[in-house]
Each structure stands twice: as C-alpha cells, then as structure tokens.
Amino acid sequence: MNILIVKLSAIGDVIHTLPALNALRRCYPDARITWVVESAAAGLVEGHEALDRVIISERKRWAKGLLRGPARLRNVSAACRFIREIRDTEYDLVIDFQQLLKSGVPVGLARGKCKAGFDRGMQHMEHSYLFLNRRIPPVSMEIHALRRYLILLEALGIPAPDVEYNLPVRRADEMAADALLAENGMAGSRLLVAINPVAQWETKLWENRKFAALADRLIAEYGADVVFTGGPDDGPVVADILSHMQHRASGFAGRTSLKVLAALCRKARFVISTDTGPMHLAAAVETPVVALFGPTAPWRTGPFGAGNRVIRTGLPCSPCFKRQCTRKDHMCMRGIRVRDVMAEIRRAGILPEE
C-alpha cells in the first residue's frame, strides 16, 4: 500500500501532524508512506522511523525565481522535477492535512485512488476540498489542530487513540546541543531554561525588555543558565534582549537545526515561548512549556499536553487572529507582566525549591 501525506508547513503544523503519521504506520505497518513538506520544516520529518520517503517543496523559491532572476531556468527545472517526483507513484491514499490551496495543488497533481481531507466549511481552507474525492465532514476549529488531524484519520477508519511524535532526534543532535552549551560555559549542572522570544506575527511579540527582565530574575533567584533560541533572522532581536540584561545569558539564534533545537529543548527544565514553532517542538519532546498568547487561541494551537501552561490577558478582543493590532496598543501581549510569568512558572512546579 502507498500512502501520501501532504502537510507543507509550518513548523508547528508539521509537528501536530506527526501523531497522525504514527497512527498511519501502526494501522499499515507494511505500507510505503511518503510526506510532501516545504524545506523549512523538512528537518522535522527527514529520518522519521515511520516514513519511507520525503518529497521537499521549494514553492516560495520557485515562484520567486520563475518571475525574475538568472536562476529562472534552474527553478523551472526544479519545479518540474518536483512534479515528476510527486507523480512517479500511484498512491492508494492521499491525505491533505493542510487544507489550503498550496496543499491542494500537490494533492491534485498526485496520482491517487483516494484523495481525502475535510470538506468545505473549514475556516481558511481556500477551496482545497475541490481536489478531493473523499470529503470528510468538517469539524469545529475550536478543537485543537492535533486532534482535528486524528479525527480526520478516524473518519477514514484508521484508529488514532494515542498521541506520539517520535521526533527523529539522533545522538549526533544531542552531541551538537551539548557542544553548544559547553561552548557557552553551560556544563549541565545548573538549571537550564530556554526562551524563544520571536514569532512571525508582530501581534504575537512580547517586549524585549520584559524578556530581559524575566531572564535576569531566573538567573538571580534560581541560578539558571538561560539561552535564547531563534532562527537565522532572529539574531538582532536576541542581541537587543541580551543588551538589556544585567546578568549573562547566551544567544543561540541561527545556531541550531530543528533537530538540535529539539535536543536542546529536551535538556532544558522548561521552555518559555511566544506562539511559534519552537513552542510546539518543546512540547513534542515533553519539556514543560510556558507560552505567552495574545492574538491566537491556545485551545486551537497551543502547546499540546497536560504539563504545559499558557499565559494570556484574556482581553475581549483576544483572540482576534490578526497580524496587525486594530487597537494599535498590542495590549493582549503587552498586558502580560514579568511577575505574571514568574508566578505561573512557580505554580507549574517546574522550578527547584529555593
């Protein structure tokens, strides 16, 4: 049996689909399972024990390259190669977990007997149901995304009773995380806290000075080693936070792969994060997460698992699901105080006794 999973992005969304992958493997132990994913999130699935093949989409780069630039022909060739790859197998089951036009296109291109996904009625689905021949009745968006994907499988007759990620973190990733910590004078004998301060939406951000004050308190009161994580473009934000601190912390923005970041999160006592991919990565390796939420709904896309905590102001306009604040004051995030975060961390019982 050949199965194709289409879940292109983003990091958190791909992580939320991993339990569905494991459920598929348990139901069809001898199947050949392929996953189509964009390059930014590919590290989360490459090498996964439940997968046989990964097809990587460079959709954004191809689209930009087709319009301009000397690499136009190379991008055309790469896009054609992707189409050949996705069509070189006839699949018994194709599942669209993304429910967007960008996932509907590869679903449409794939040669599949059964192309399954949610029918019209799901929020923001961009007519992706048009590419399906097996349409599952829509479910409430108020159900957590991870649960929605498992409900989709169950509607197809595939049991999905358990939530397992099995992130493909290898010994080499653990060693790389250890080396990075040792390079910054963190040998593992102290309390390690990882903080991810950046998110793609402006409305999801907390003030840099508050992150600095929070880290200083963790260091001063608990002797913590604090590391700030992020992607290659997040270095200036992390540098600004560090410039406001009274104590020493380390900036790892752009210095880890996704798998090394997962290994680093696993070594941390807990992770503090805005609503972004690394928050879900920490939850997937079962490290407690303290998440700061403003414009989005934690019951839909928050850190999954009983040991995680969410802090939000609960303003009447939140969640608004907007990238720009209509109030112009960002109070759903700015209203969160440093002492609120410290109090929640203490309530969670994840700090050592003073």
Automatic annotation (TrEMBL):
EC number from the UniProt entry: 2.4.99.24
Keywords assigned: Glycosyltransferase, Transferase
Catalytic reaction list: an L-alpha-D-Hep-(1->5)-[alpha-Kdo-(2->4)]-alpha-Kdo-(2->6)-lipid A + ADP-L-glycero-beta-D-manno-heptose = an L-alpha-D-Hep-(1->3)-L-alpha-D-Hep-(1->5)-[alpha-Kdo-(2->4)]-alpha-Kdo-(2->6)-lipid A + ADP + H(+)
GO biological processes: lipopolysaccharide core region biosynthetic process
Gene Ontology, cellular component aspect: cytosol
InterPro entries assigned to the protein according to its UniProt record, in alphabetical order: Glyco_trans_9, LPS_LOS_Heptosyltrfase, RfaF
Family, similarity comment: Belongs to the glycosyltransferase 9 family.
Designated name of the protein: lipopolysaccharide heptosyltransferase II
